[in-house]
Specification:
Elements (H helix, E strand, L loop, with lengths): L2 E4 L5 H8 L3 E4 L7 H7 L5 E4 L7 H6 L5 E4 L9 H6 L4 E3 L5 H17 L5 H5 L18 E5 L3 H12 L3 E5 L8 H5 L3 E2 L2 H7 L2 E4 L13 H5 L5 E5 L8 H10 L2 E6 L19 E3 L8 H19 L1
Parallel strand pairs: 1-2, 1-3, 3-4, 4-5, 6-7, 6-9, 7-8, 9-10, 10-11, 11-12
Length: 308
């Protein structure tokens, strides 16, 4: 019987599936108890984490008998993957399991930001009836969605976008504009510069690596189409948050949604207070009841296979 340590939230039936075969330590708060986590690490044959547990440095060194790391999600920037590979320690992400959740978040948020009519509760309750002020919202049909990154999540987002009448263009560092994947999806493959200039909504679907860190800085945001919308469900370090706020306050951007931040959990952030047309959510684009079940079930199965 192996020992499995789970440091963050996992769907209960998946935990039970693991516990039926192996000794399981499941504590969703373990991520916030670094000393205890370090003490538990040497006895772990498998480690299961989400995005907050930093599998690197001292923790990685302490995983002396670990045979597999399961990631309840797809981003791997919280895991020292080369370090794991050097130890012969496989890292298994839940590829594809939360794609639909992220894609639905992007399309729903894009519709809300284009329309600009859903943050008026207080005014309506107060009897102000801001009908004229809210009558200039934009329809999605005929607008252009630009996808930065065209992997599985980007491709699913494109299909949902097309269903509501959005035209879609995309760029991906691993796919030149002429790659047949774009044409097969009914999407225009373009350069990043063309995407920035010609998109009404831009959604980010790239990992946080050296080439994407600070990708959307003040200079690049300035080249976006006036009045356009930026949605980031990827990683916080990709967008310069101060530059984004400045572009929203100046009116250059027509809206933005941030589900991810440079520091998470986000500390008190007065810089975002009263910023117009801004939606902030706590890294939950890929987390729904259904996605959590799919992600957890997939990782439970893969971990069991690795320990067999």
């Amino acid at each position: 019987m192996a020992r499995i340590v789970i440091t963050e939230v996992m769907d209960s039936p998946a935990v039970a599936q693991l516990a039926a075969v192996h000794d399981v330590l499941y504590d969703p708060l373990l991520v916030d108890q670094p000393a205890r986590l370090l003490a538990e690490a040497p006895s772990a044959d498998a480690l299961v984490v989400r995005n907050r547990t930093q599998v690197r440095g001292e923790l990685l060194a302490a995983l002396s008998r670990c045979r597999v790391v399961g990631r309840l999600g797809v981003g791997l920037d919280n895991i020292d993957v080369p370090g794991c590979e050097a130890r012969g320690l496989p890292v298994i992400p839940a590829t594809g399991a939360n794609a639909l959740s992220v894609a639905e978040y992007v399309i729903g948020t894009a519709l809300v930001l284009l329309r600009g009519a859903y943050q008026s509760n207080a005014a309506v309750v107060a009897g102000k009836w801001p009908r004229q002020a809210l009558s200039n919202g934009r329809e999605a049909a005929g607008k252009t969605l630009g996808l930065v990154g065209f992997g599985s999540i980007g491709q699913l987002t494109a299909r949902l976008a097309q269903a509501v009448g959005l035209k879609v263009q995309a760029c991906d560092a691993l796919m030149p504009p002429g790659d047949p994947v774009y044409a097969g999806a009914g999407v225009a493959g373009v350069s990043l510069e063309a995407l920035l200039a010609g998109s009404d909504v831009i959604s980010l679907h790239v990992p946080l690596v050296d080439s994407t860190r600070g990708l959307f800085n003040a200079t690049r945001i300035a080249t976006m189409k006036a009045g356009s919308v930026l949605i980031n469900t990827a990683r916080g370090g990709i967008v310069d948050e101060a530059a984004l706020v400045a572009a929203l306050r100046s009116g250059h951007l027509g809206g933005a949604a941030l589900d991810v931040f440079g520091t998470e959990p986000l500390p008190p952030a007065p810089q975002f207070a009263d910023c117009p047309n801004l939606i902030l959510t706590p890294h939950i684009a890929g987390v729904t009841a259904e996605a959590n079940e799919r992600v957890s079930t997939l990782i439970a199965r893969k971990v069991l296979e690795a320990l067999a």
